[in-house]
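Q: Got a minute? One more chain.
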Amino acid sequence: MKSFKLSLVLSLFSLLAAGSAMAVTIPKIDGYIIYGGTYSSYVYGARVRICTTPNPTSSSNCVAPITNSSGYYAVYNWVVGDNATIYWFPYTDSPAGGRTGRWGNATTAIRSSIACQSKNQYGWCTNYGVNATLAVYPSPLEPVAVNPAPNSTDVGRVQTMKWTNSVDSWRAGHDIVYDVYGSGFDAPLLLQVSNLPCNADANNRCQWQLPLTLDPQTPYNWKIVARNRSVYNYETESQVYHFTTGW
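A: Always. Here it is, folded:
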């Protein structure tokens, strides 16, 4: 009888331990967000997206605290899987100090950490939290189509595509390149060329000579993706633009 009771207690304890090992409550995740670069300062109002996947979707397990006036953020008692890795996506759309455009990126993780960094002999998580102070760098400015003009018609079939430069004084010296996507007749956009330098014209517009002649009287769609290869491959995508060729 004693052996049976002991076995029952051990079995119940094993089930409790197994159940508790399925999830971990991280008591606190905190830190500071600063602007990277020569003139670093704390970032007020940055959103710090923290997820359990490097490619989050709307259904992913994420939290998103916002930094206070001192650039500090904190999350308390977040429940994750005990084998989870957590990823940080800090960014701000309201940069201060004369900075322009978005800093950081909502879809590019810049740090990861194992959620449960220590366990006791029963497999229960015992870490007290995770601290991460991170620097955000400028994402490219959004490229805007210049030629062909958006929604233009009777466009020539031989074209040099042009768009606004994604570099300003805050992004000078960064390795920013461009990918161009395009399609005809509302087909899905396909990558046409990648890693283009700006090749600026006299008006500081980036440009790319199409290597083919477009079809006559055909509707086309296109977009530009600017990427900062100097820091985490931060990307900024244009809207999709439309034009129609002539004869």
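A: The chain has a mean pLDDT of 90.
Q: Perfect, thanks.
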